Amino acid sequence: MSHNLFETFAERMRDRGAADFITTREGRRYSHGEALAESARLAGALIALGVQPGDRVAVQVDKSPEAILLYLACLRIGGVYLPLNTGYTGDEIRYFLGDAEPALFVCRPAAEEEARRIARETGCPAVETLGTAADGSLMAAAARATPHETIVAREADDLAAILYTSGTTGRSKGAMLTHRNLGSNAATLAKAWHFSAEDRLIHALPIFHTHGLFVACNVTLMAGSSLRFLPKFDADVIFEELPRGTVLMGVPTFYTRLVADDRLTPEVTANMRLFVSGSAPLTAETHEAFEARTGHAILERYGMTETNMNISNPYDGARRAGTVGLPLPGVEMRITDRETGEEVPRGEIGMLQIRGPNVFIGYWRMPEKTREELLEDGFFITGDLAMVDDQGYVHIVGRDKDLVISGGYNVYPKEVEQLIDELDGVAESAVIGLPHPDFGEGVTAVVVPRAGAELDESQVIGHLAGRLAKYKQPKRVFFADALPRNTMGKVQKNELRKAYHNTYQ
Ligand code: MLC
Ligand code: AMP
To answer: What is the 277 CA–ligand 2 centroid distance (Å)?
Structure first.
């Protein structure tokens, strides 16, 4: 028996036939049946391009319905889908292609020349393009290809996708996700959040990370629902779409922006049945303000690239502000002492560890990193600090990992610090997250210049531009004579966070 996740999706898509799968505001539409057929043509193109089962297909394209069909095509032929943030620069892409060794790189039409150069340098044998209007060489290849109707058999532990997450060492790690990981989580979430064929999900997230790709799209496919595909979050557009939608999934920035808008009323949200928030902490204030304005309690859930979704507030029952809820069915959780590794008593703060069919199988070609974070008994060390209250609800109270989350995107300070430190005249630097009214946390750098060096903010930012995705670049750069250190010589980032606390508010 095959465990290819696409078997389940295809079955639903056949059942749903002519019903909407993806629609856009420009009037583009794929029914479930059409999406199934087009994914077979794209699968034919992938095969013709030489993609074999187990091969990685790296994709850095703007959001479009066809990008989702490409993801489905890749699953269909047993390929490993590797989506890349559209904000990544050439330098960042070079690393990913070098590390993942994909059989094919699909890029934006405008980026083809650079993509071909990077592909040559990294030994990637094929490059194709995909635009947002069903254009590009890949769509042309699909039109020529013999549709590949067969769904290639896969084992449950075979890879379906690799998603890169930055690391504390500054080197990004490819999280290896299997058909079992993605399939089990999609089925669990569709059930827990009562998804049905009637649902129309307003999709404004990017489709290169877990939230917008797996949580939103896989759950839709599991339940035979439909996606209203928007290029990005734009409050004006969301207010136009809310009266015809049933579900919105977003990062907290979506909700702080909606709450700040007078158009948020019970009337405009009357057709909606569910608002989901995740990827970063939703403040209790935003949760409460949203409920007061609309009558809807946002459902906050907790997850990560390596584990998919783990913990969720209940659909029926209290959705409690400031908590991420209860472990999802099939997910085990324990909270341990950071020093001893022993479980801590309920009510105490410790390191959150997670086990379940949703947990990834390791980091691509990084066995040591995998051993450090994925324990022999199957528990994954999340790096998040949590506490379980007397009603069993989980509170994420902080992070043990040195990580900033800005507008739902993760930024590992080390990666930014390493680049700043390369700049002439810099002795050392520290990158921290400070409270930011829009992005939750704002990436901020504190730089110590070498004696006699003349440096200013624009030079530091200018040095990072073109090397780092925009969202990773500091919003502000400060200069200091020295960084505060503890007796072990470690930079005390808490002291820096205190000193610059009010920067954005
Ligand atoms: C955009 N900018 C950001 C930024 N997004 N800067 C910091 N952090 C961000 N997240 C930059 C822009 O380039 C621009 O720079 C300036 O900030 C203002 O942009 P904007 O117009 O306000 O941004 P916008 O396009 O509206 O995007 C904000 C956003 C978007 C929050 C809507 O970032 C977003 O969709 N984030 C979702 C991220 C996500 O999907 N995370 C899930 C990860 S999965 P300038 O200088 O050019 O003006 C995961 C697991 C889990 O975490 O549990 O889900
Ligand atoms: P990523 O590696 O991009 O998948 O980000 C995962 C991280 O996002 C987690 O380890 C948490 O730190 C954070 N996160 C996700 N959801 C929540 C949430 N609801 N509350 C607080 N932090 C969250």
So the answer is: 11
